Amino acid sequence: MPILVGISLVAFILLQLTPGGPTAAYRGIANIRGEDLARIQAELGYDRPIIVQYFSWIGQFVTGDWGISFVARRPVFGLIMERLPATLLLMAAGITVSLIISVPLGLLAAIKRDTWVDHSLTFASFVGLSIPVFWLGLMLIIVFSVWLPWFPTGGMGPPGQEVGIMTRLWYLTLPTTAVSMVSLSFFTRYLRASMIETMDEEYMRFNKARGLPPIRRYMRHAFRNAGIPFVTVVAIHIPEFLVGALVVETIFSWPGTGRLFWDSAIRFDYPVLMGVLVLGSLMVLLSNLLADVLYVKLDPRVRLD
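Above: the chain's sequence. Below: its structure in token form.
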């Protein structure tokens, strides 16, 4: 909780100090005068000292009152909760695809280490880690939506129509590919290194000398122990999907919290920006807590004091 309070305080101060201030969204309105802006600032409480504004805001925030959007004229909490399921769906799809592909590739690279298979997978992983998410998203649209019209350019489904599972997956394909590429490559590299380190242990040589079949040695002994740090790394890496979702949702017009954050930043919608920032910070803290809990559960040698 102290960390979350500190993050929210820094974010609140930085947003207040941006050019134009919290009432910048009103400056583009025709016929608005200086006295009108001063009146709006007084009504919203932005004429008070920043620290007083912060404690007033956080007191309302913890009770579920996240403020009113300047643009949508709706409660921020309801606005974010409407967009959150789309972001969670994209994150879940990205994590699932990353694990489904990276686990077998990481195991294969470790088992076939120093062969052409290992070198090829290592090269592909470095390429995946080097590709910017925004560039990959644009290339996917150009290739698979423009040149080869196989997938839609954006959205979650046809406007005004009921969307089935297959249609949702069709619209989800390109955003998931973009958001999972970097994580997929990282997971592959990490699991390969963890497996190789485990396979070099003395008990693995002893198991080989006992005549255990390779599949049993690799899966039951090596992967079981190498998977402990791998699981915690995946849990810690969850916020990366949230950061990637901000870019991917903007490129593919995916109606999640990332797209909401981008639109709110352009329109100077400060209450929405604060809500999304604090929610994202909370997800980061929870993912780190999840990593600690999982490590304790998977490795009995570790305890939380």
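The chain has two domains: 2-61, 78-298.
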